[in-house]
Design goal:
single chain, six-stranded parallel sheet, Rossmann fold, three-stranded mixed sheet, 2 domains, globular, disordered C terminus
Length: 289
Protein backbone atom coordinates (compact mmCIF):
# COMPACT_ATOMS: atom_id res chain seq x y z
CA UNK A 1 0.00 0.00 0.00
CA UNK A 2 1.30 3.46 -0.85
CA UNK A 3 2.22 5.53 2.16
CA UNK A 4 2.11 9.31 1.75
CA UNK A 5 5.49 10.58 2.95
CA UNK A 6 6.43 13.99 4.27
CA UNK A 7 10.14 14.84 4.12
CA UNK A 8 12.04 17.72 5.71
CA UNK A 9 15.80 17.94 5.15
CA UNK A 10 17.14 17.81 1.59
CA UNK A 11 20.89 18.00 2.07
CA UNK A 12 23.50 15.57 0.78
CA UNK A 13 21.99 12.72 2.77
CA UNK A 14 18.32 13.67 2.80
CA UNK A 15 17.83 14.30 -0.91
CA UNK A 16 18.86 10.82 -2.15
CA UNK A 17 16.97 9.17 0.71
CA UNK A 18 13.76 11.03 -0.12
CA UNK A 19 14.26 10.21 -3.80
CA UNK A 20 14.42 6.48 -3.03
CA UNK A 21 10.99 6.63 -1.37
CA UNK A 22 9.55 8.62 -4.28
CA UNK A 23 10.99 6.16 -6.80
CA UNK A 24 9.44 3.29 -4.83
CA UNK A 25 6.03 4.78 -5.61
CA UNK A 26 5.20 6.64 -2.42
CA UNK A 27 3.52 10.05 -2.82
CA UNK A 28 5.99 12.58 -1.41
CA UNK A 29 5.50 16.02 0.14
CA UNK A 30 8.66 18.00 0.80
CA UNK A 31 9.48 21.27 2.51
CA UNK A 32 12.74 23.19 2.89
CA UNK A 33 13.73 26.58 4.26
CA UNK A 34 15.50 27.14 0.94
CA UNK A 35 12.87 26.45 -1.76
CA UNK A 36 15.61 25.76 -4.34
CA UNK A 37 16.37 22.52 -2.50
CA UNK A 38 12.94 21.18 -3.45
CA UNK A 39 13.22 21.78 -7.19
CA UNK A 40 14.84 18.48 -8.19
CA UNK A 41 12.26 16.34 -6.43
CA UNK A 42 9.42 18.53 -7.65
CA UNK A 43 10.53 17.85 -11.23
CA UNK A 44 10.47 14.13 -10.38
CA UNK A 45 6.89 14.21 -9.10
CA UNK A 46 7.03 15.31 -5.47
CA UNK A 47 4.64 17.92 -4.12
CA UNK A 48 6.05 20.95 -2.29
CA UNK A 49 4.21 21.87 0.91
CA UNK A 50 3.71 25.57 1.55
CA UNK A 51 4.75 25.17 5.19
CA UNK A 52 5.41 22.57 7.89
CA UNK A 53 1.80 22.54 9.05
CA UNK A 54 0.57 21.58 5.57
CA UNK A 55 3.23 18.88 5.26
CA UNK A 56 2.08 17.39 8.58
CA UNK A 57 -1.58 17.53 7.54
CA UNK A 58 -0.98 15.65 4.27
CA UNK A 59 1.42 12.93 5.42
CA UNK A 60 1.01 9.52 6.98
CA UNK A 61 4.72 9.22 7.77
CA UNK A 62 7.07 12.17 8.20
CA UNK A 63 10.86 11.88 7.97
CA UNK A 64 13.21 14.62 9.15
CA UNK A 65 16.99 14.75 8.74
CA UNK A 66 18.27 18.12 9.88
CA UNK A 67 21.43 19.96 10.85
CA UNK A 68 21.40 19.97 14.63
CA UNK A 69 19.37 19.62 17.80
CA UNK A 70 18.00 23.16 17.61
CA UNK A 71 16.76 22.48 14.08
CA UNK A 72 14.87 19.40 15.28
CA UNK A 73 13.20 21.37 18.06
CA UNK A 74 12.26 24.19 15.68
CA UNK A 75 10.93 21.96 12.89
CA UNK A 76 8.85 19.79 15.23
CA UNK A 77 7.37 22.92 16.77
CA UNK A 78 6.38 23.98 13.26
CA UNK A 79 4.91 20.57 12.44
CA UNK A 80 2.85 20.27 15.62
CA UNK A 81 -0.21 22.34 14.61
CA UNK A 82 -0.77 20.09 11.60
CA UNK A 83 -0.07 16.72 13.24
CA UNK A 84 -2.75 14.12 12.47
CA UNK A 85 -3.77 11.13 14.56
CA UNK A 86 -1.77 7.93 13.91
CA UNK A 87 0.92 9.73 11.89
CA UNK A 88 4.46 8.43 12.45
CA UNK A 89 7.39 10.83 12.80
CA UNK A 90 10.93 9.56 12.23
CA UNK A 91 13.87 11.84 12.95
CA UNK A 92 17.16 10.80 11.37
CA UNK A 93 19.19 13.77 12.59
CA UNK A 94 22.32 13.35 14.70
CA UNK A 95 20.91 15.14 17.73
CA UNK A 96 21.10 15.29 21.52
CA UNK A 97 19.42 12.27 23.15
CA UNK A 98 17.74 14.52 25.74
CA UNK A 99 15.25 15.89 23.17
CA UNK A 100 13.71 12.55 22.18
CA UNK A 101 11.28 12.14 25.07
CA UNK A 102 9.94 15.74 24.97
CA UNK A 103 9.40 15.52 21.20
CA UNK A 104 7.65 12.14 21.55
CA UNK A 105 5.44 13.46 24.35
CA UNK A 106 4.37 16.52 22.37
CA UNK A 107 3.43 14.34 19.39
CA UNK A 108 1.59 11.93 21.68
CA UNK A 109 -0.75 14.74 22.72
CA UNK A 110 -1.96 14.64 19.09
CA UNK A 111 -2.05 10.79 19.11
CA UNK A 112 0.98 10.57 16.79
CA UNK A 113 4.10 8.47 17.36
CA UNK A 114 7.81 9.24 17.23
CA UNK A 115 11.05 7.37 16.63
CA UNK A 116 14.59 8.72 16.71
CA UNK A 117 16.44 6.91 13.92
CA UNK A 118 19.79 8.48 12.98
CA UNK A 119 21.80 6.81 10.26
CA UNK A 120 25.37 5.94 9.38
CA UNK A 121 26.83 4.98 6.03
CA UNK A 122 27.51 8.34 4.42
CA UNK A 123 26.36 9.74 1.12
CA UNK A 124 27.19 6.48 -0.66
CA UNK A 125 24.88 4.63 1.72
CA UNK A 126 22.12 7.18 1.18
CA UNK A 127 22.42 6.82 -2.59
CA UNK A 128 22.52 3.04 -2.52
CA UNK A 129 20.00 2.38 0.24
CA UNK A 130 22.67 0.65 2.34
CA UNK A 131 22.58 2.77 5.49
CA UNK A 132 22.49 1.44 9.03
CA UNK A 133 19.64 2.90 11.09
CA UNK A 134 19.83 3.22 14.89
CA UNK A 135 16.24 3.24 16.15
CA UNK A 136 15.01 4.53 19.49
CA UNK A 137 11.38 4.08 20.47
CA UNK A 138 8.82 1.30 20.62
CA UNK A 139 9.79 -2.01 19.00
CA UNK A 140 6.33 -2.39 17.44
CA UNK A 141 6.71 1.00 15.76
CA UNK A 142 10.00 -0.06 14.21
CA UNK A 143 8.29 -3.21 12.94
CA UNK A 144 5.47 -1.10 11.47
CA UNK A 145 7.97 1.17 9.69
CA UNK A 146 10.22 -1.60 8.34
CA UNK A 147 8.87 -1.56 4.76
CA UNK A 148 9.85 2.10 4.42
CA UNK A 149 13.10 1.93 6.37
CA UNK A 150 14.28 -1.09 4.38
CA UNK A 151 14.14 1.07 1.25
CA UNK A 152 16.82 3.25 2.85
CA UNK A 153 18.99 0.75 4.69
CA UNK A 154 20.46 -2.70 4.83
CA UNK A 155 20.52 -2.87 8.64
CA UNK A 156 17.95 -1.74 11.21
CA UNK A 157 19.00 -1.88 14.86
CA UNK A 158 16.50 -1.34 17.65
CA UNK A 159 18.65 0.32 20.32
CA UNK A 160 16.05 0.84 23.05
CA UNK A 161 13.52 3.47 24.13
CA UNK A 162 13.26 7.07 22.91
CA UNK A 163 16.71 8.63 22.72
CA UNK A 164 18.60 5.35 22.38
CA UNK A 165 19.01 5.82 18.63
CA UNK A 166 20.50 9.27 19.14
CA UNK A 167 22.80 7.85 21.82
CA UNK A 168 24.05 5.04 19.59
CA UNK A 169 24.81 7.51 16.81
CA UNK A 170 26.99 9.56 19.17
CA UNK A 171 28.88 6.40 20.15
CA UNK A 172 29.35 5.71 16.44
CA UNK A 173 30.62 9.23 15.81
CA UNK A 174 33.07 9.00 18.71
CA UNK A 175 34.61 5.91 17.11
CA UNK A 176 34.60 7.50 13.66
CA UNK A 177 36.46 10.51 15.03
CA UNK A 178 39.18 8.27 16.44
CA UNK A 179 39.59 6.53 13.10
CA UNK A 180 39.65 9.78 11.13
CA UNK A 181 42.24 11.35 13.41
CA UNK A 182 44.43 8.25 13.30
CA UNK A 183 44.09 8.10 9.52
CA UNK A 184 44.95 11.78 9.17
CA UNK A 185 48.13 11.37 11.24
CA UNK A 186 49.09 8.26 9.29
CA UNK A 187 48.65 9.94 5.92
CA UNK A 188 50.62 12.96 7.10
CA UNK A 189 53.48 10.63 8.04
CA UNK A 190 53.15 8.94 4.65
CA UNK A 191 53.57 12.28 2.88
CA UNK A 192 56.58 13.15 5.01
CA UNK A 193 58.05 9.74 4.13
CA UNK A 194 57.54 10.48 0.41
CA UNK A 195 55.26 7.49 -0.09
CA UNK A 196 52.63 7.89 -2.78
CA UNK A 197 48.99 6.95 -2.40
CA UNK A 198 49.27 3.86 -4.58
CA UNK A 199 52.00 2.40 -2.40
CA UNK A 200 50.11 3.18 0.80
CA UNK A 201 46.99 1.47 -0.54
CA UNK A 202 48.80 -1.63 -1.75
CA UNK A 203 50.73 -1.92 1.51
CA UNK A 204 47.89 -1.28 3.97
CA UNK A 205 44.58 -1.99 2.27
CA UNK A 206 44.57 -5.68 3.18
CA UNK A 207 45.97 -5.27 6.69
CA UNK A 208 44.67 -4.25 10.07
CA UNK A 209 44.71 -0.52 9.19
CA UNK A 210 42.22 -1.09 6.38
CA UNK A 211 38.49 -0.54 6.48
CA UNK A 212 35.68 1.58 5.12
CA UNK A 213 37.16 4.91 6.19
CA UNK A 214 40.63 3.97 4.95
CA UNK A 215 39.21 3.05 1.56
CA UNK A 216 37.12 6.20 1.42
CA UNK A 217 39.55 8.78 2.78
CA UNK A 218 43.17 7.67 2.40
CA UNK A 219 43.62 9.22 -1.04
CA UNK A 220 41.62 12.32 -0.19
CA UNK A 221 43.66 12.85 2.98
CA UNK A 222 46.92 12.35 1.14
CA UNK A 223 45.98 14.93 -1.49
CA UNK A 224 43.87 17.26 0.66
CA UNK A 225 41.27 17.25 -2.12
CA UNK A 226 38.42 15.23 -3.58
CA UNK A 227 34.68 15.03 -3.00
CA UNK A 228 33.32 16.58 0.18
CA UNK A 229 30.93 14.04 1.67
CA UNK A 230 31.38 14.86 5.38
CA UNK A 231 32.38 18.34 6.47
CA UNK A 232 34.56 19.51 9.31
CA UNK A 233 31.62 21.53 10.61
CA UNK A 234 29.37 18.48 10.85
CA UNK A 235 32.09 16.48 12.57
CA UNK A 236 32.58 19.34 15.04
CA UNK A 237 28.85 19.40 15.75
CA UNK A 238 28.80 15.64 16.35
CA UNK A 239 31.80 15.81 18.68
CA UNK A 240 30.21 18.61 20.69
CA UNK A 241 27.10 16.49 21.10
CA UNK A 242 29.12 13.41 22.05
CA UNK A 243 31.19 15.34 24.60
CA UNK A 244 28.07 16.87 26.16
CA UNK A 245 26.45 13.43 26.30
CA UNK A 246 29.53 11.95 27.97
CA UNK A 247 29.42 14.72 30.56
CA UNK A 248 25.71 14.06 31.19
CA UNK A 249 26.61 10.42 31.87
CA UNK A 250 29.50 11.49 34.13
CA UNK A 251 31.80 9.65 31.76
CA UNK A 252 34.54 12.25 31.10
CA UNK A 253 36.37 11.74 27.83
CA UNK A 254 39.85 13.14 27.31
CA UNK A 255 39.74 11.78 23.78
CA UNK A 256 36.58 13.68 22.80
CA UNK A 257 38.00 16.89 24.25
CA UNK A 258 41.23 16.38 22.26
CA UNK A 259 39.38 15.42 19.08
CA UNK A 260 37.19 18.50 19.33
CA UNK A 261 40.28 20.66 19.78
CA UNK A 262 41.77 19.21 16.58
CA UNK A 263 38.58 19.68 14.59
CA UNK A 264 38.16 23.23 15.89
CA UNK A 265 41.68 23.99 14.65
CA UNK A 266 40.87 22.50 11.25
CA UNK A 267 37.66 24.55 11.02
CA UNK A 268 39.57 27.73 11.83
CA UNK A 269 42.14 27.01 9.14
CA UNK A 270 40.10 25.49 6.33
CA UNK A 271 36.53 26.53 7.13
CA UNK A 272 33.61 24.53 8.46
CA UNK A 273 32.46 23.60 4.93
CA UNK A 274 35.75 21.89 4.06
CA UNK A 275 35.85 18.10 3.96
CA UNK A 276 37.19 16.05 6.86
CA UNK A 277 40.07 15.01 4.59
CA UNK A 278 41.67 18.33 5.55
CA UNK A 279 42.40 16.95 9.03
CA UNK A 280 45.52 15.45 7.47
CA UNK A 281 46.82 18.88 6.49
CA UNK A 282 46.99 20.66 9.84
CA UNK A 283 50.31 22.06 10.99
CA UNK A 284 51.71 20.14 13.92
CA UNK A 285 54.15 17.53 15.02
CA UNK A 286 54.54 14.94 12.32
CA UNK A 287 52.15 16.74 9.98
CA UNK A 288 52.70 18.57 6.75
CA UNK A 289 51.41 22.03 5.95
Amino acid sequence: MQNTIGWVGLGKMGLPMARRLLQAGHPLYVWARNPEQTLALRREGAEVATDLMELAQRSQTVFTILGDTADVESVYQGLLPGVQEDTVYIDMTTAAPRIAVPVAERLATRKARFMDAPVTGGVAGALGGTLTIFAGGAADLLEQCKPLLELLSRQLVHCGPHGAGYSMKLINQTMIAGTLLGLSEGMALARASHFDTGLIKSALAAGTASGMLFNSYSERMMEGAGDITFTLGLLRKDLRLALAYAEELRQPSQFLAFALQCVNKACERFGAHAGVQMLGHLDGAGQGS
